[in-house]
UniProtKB/TrEMBL annotation:
It comes from Saitozyma podzolica. It comes from the Eukaryota. This is Uncharacterized protein. Pfam families: Esterase. PANTHER family: DIACYLGLYCEROL ACYLTRANSFERASE_MYCOLYLTRANSFERASE AG85A, ENTEROCHELIN ESTERASE-RELATED. InterPro entries: AB_hydrolase_fold (IPR029058), Esterase-like (IPR000801), Mycobacterial_A85_antigen (IPR050583).
Length: 339
């Protein structure tokens, strides 16, 4: 979906793989208490033109900054992990907590991951939502950062090493943010939230690097079980045609392979879904059964009447959206050198 400067959603760019589903009949109108930004009404999906889809896995930097709301910053950071492309950089948007400029307090970081066929600007609604909740005292004061990641990259290190997105976000980005902002430099203060492909990426990063990230908020994770469930143009740059690579990088596999480290580190996990997100219902159920099988502690909430639309799912979850983060924040450890 594209979000303009006023936070209004104008469409969702989403490549729907087989089977094709007519989502236009699923229209969600939020009828709860007023929230900011306003919860949009959305009809179906808008697939991107083929020419744009083909170029998506070269979008390391989103150059649009003029229309970004004033409370949100645009910046770039070095990506030395892109060894095949020396001097590579990536962009991100950041929402600083209220009072950041006036004091010297250190804050946790929440990395917000956009969905497939999207850009960092698709995080604007989330940045505005959490920004308002911080102003209202309902969300822990947090530095929220939405990196531009390759719109078809799945937040993993791809099959041939040319797009090491997981390494970039877990190492290059974290290092850059620690240098630029007053962060709490401890895993207990590094959190991730993502929607759709970003929900998948949240789990992939968190299960791969439990020593770096402590809290994972996965919203409608696009966790289809087989490479053949996705359209070839969506997965070619990331997986090639390697079904085994698709499987071993999937959160379904990673949670089992790394469960000892995940449990030992006390990683907090939640999954938020919509009752009308019919393309992903079976896949998410399968993933949560895997969580149960390996003994992962997690929480799940389903928003009644919500389809595959981030604001609708959050609106349906109500106050628990931020109450969960408040519980996560109770576990923050402040390194001695910061005191």
């Amino acid at each position: 979906m594209s979000v303009n400067a006023n936070g209004n959603i104008t469409g969702h760019h989403f490549a729907v793989g087989p089977p094709q589903i007519d989502m236009s009949k699923y229209r969600y109108v939020y009828k709860g208490p007023d929230i900011f930004p306003p919860v949009p009404e959305v009809d179906g999906f808008i697939p991107p033109p083929t020419s744009i889809a083909a170029a998506h896995n070269h979008f390391w930097i989103d150059t649009e900054y003029i229309t970004i709301p004033k409370a949100i910053q645009w910046d770039i950071y070095p990506q030395p992990s892109r060894r095949a492309q020396p001097g590579g950089q990536g962009s991100y948007l950041a929402r600083l907590p209220p009072g950041y400029e006036e004091g010297n307090e250190r804050y946790p970081i929440l990395i917000w991951l956009h969905g497939g066929m999207q850009t960092q600007r698709d995080a604007i609604w989330a940045l505005q939502y959490y920004g308002r909740k911080m102003e209202e005292g309902k969300m822990p004061k947090t530095i929220i950062v939405a990196p531009q990641a390759l719109p078809k990259g799945r937040y993993i290190d791809n099959f041939d090493g040319t797009r090491p997105i997981a390494t970039i976000l877990s190492h290059d980005l974290i290092k850059a943010l620690d240098q630029k902002y007053r962060t709490i430099r401890h895993r207990s203060a590094r959190w991730i939230e993502g929607f759709s492909m970003g929900g998948y990426g949240t789990l992939h990063l968190g299960f791969t690097y439990p020593e770096i990230f402590s809290a994972l908020s996965s919203i409608a994770p696009a966790c289809l079980p087989h490479i053949t469930d996705e359209m070839p143009p969506v997965v070619a740059d990331t997986y090639g045609t390697n079904a085994d690579f698709y499987d071993v990088t999937h959160p379904y596999h990673l949670v089992g392979a790394n469960i000892s480290q995940i449990k030992a580190s006390g990683t907090k996990v939640r999954v938020l879904t919509g009752s009308l997100d019919i393309r992903l219902t079976a896949a998410i159920d399968r993933l949560m059964k895997r969580f149960d099988q390996v003994g992962l502690q997690y929480q799940h909430r389903e928003s009644e009447g919500a389809a595959h639309v981030y604001p609708h799912i959050l609106a349906g979850a109500g106050s628990w959206v931020t109450e969960w983060w408040a519980e996560v924040a109770k576990n923050i450890v402040r390194p001695e050198f910061e005191n």
